Amino acid sequence: MFRKIINTFGTRLLGAILNFLIAVVISQTVGDVGKGEQALLLMDITFVLIFSDIISGSSIVFLTPKHSFSKIILPAYLWSLLIGLFAIVVFPLVGGEITWSLAANVGLLSLLSSLASVNTSVLIGRERVNAANMVNLWQPVTLLLTLLVCYYGFGMLNLNAYIIALYVAYGGSWLFGTILLHNEFRKFAFCPFDEYKGVVKDLFKYGILNQSGHLVQFINLRLGFYLLQRYVDVGSTGVFSNAVALAEAVWLISRSIALVQYARIANSDDADYSRRLTLDLAKICLAFSTAAMVVLALLPTSFHQWLFGPEFGALPTLIRILAPGALIYSLFLILGHYFSGTGRYQMNTYAALCGLIFTFALGFTLIPRYGIYGAAVTSSVSYAANAVFLMIVFFRGSTFKVSDFFLSRKNIVEYSKMIKEQLIKRTDNE
Asked: What is the pTM of this model?
């Protein structure tokens, strides 16, 4: 398991660096307004994916060990197609400024991303984490390369360049994942309709619980973007999106750990083992996340302006406001995957609803008055509320205390010994 965590972290670290370079390229090339347009488009796609993932999302990880590939892949693919087509029709009707052309791109890109996600979820469910990591890494690599070609090769300094890059990234990821699953697809066989009913029921049961939480969480994490567009301007959305991306970059530690944790817990029936594993991983996650956040918060204004452009001078202050909540939220990611891995998706939804109360209470009062700084305070408080709720629930189901989330000297010795043993084993194998 430790080797998978290291591989996942390395892959996600490389992916985070590539996404950071993507943000730099977009900010430097098209400025804060162009960055804002890109952020809003990506959020529209993410919004559609929330509904695609009701059947085509992470519930597949939980159910893959329990059902055959043929029974899972067909309903997941058909649902992705249905939601993508639905988005094309509905977005122009309810999306205000969204044109039919933009809606078509949002729907098709959502479909490709959803199909790619289905493939990677099956890989993770089979504990082929390294293969899933390769698929996930494809997206930022090809996205960055395609953007560079569009911007500097063809002079496409507009949103169309980003749309083209997304088609290459999402489409390529889906194809790559399909190749990795070629044995499963080769053995695919249609099943009697009655056999699909039970699988779809399970996918929907766990998916609706999980995705209702993701929908609320999407509002928690991204409502500020839309409120900034409404009450301030698109340029402020671009600046704030970069601040959020940087602050949330520390979550790659939690997400790398949680990906392996989720697969391991989903394949385990030992409740005590799952709780202890979650606590140990939470300790490691919080320690490394804190170190990363301290470095990030100390970067000066001049550095951010040199990197992104003169419009992004507010980034250091925004990151420091976001930092406390973002750090606590790193625990939410670990605890949330514990509850998901044990089939209790509703706990993540309840936690998200708790954060949503603060998002609405603060977002509509602070953002119109204080702009991007009000948005940062709103996000930070919402992050923390999510995590605190899950911590309370986790404590009530165990004998752990708050102090157990912090590394002790004994923990450091144990984990250092474990890392050393794994490195030696890896060296011997090589």
From this structure: 0.76
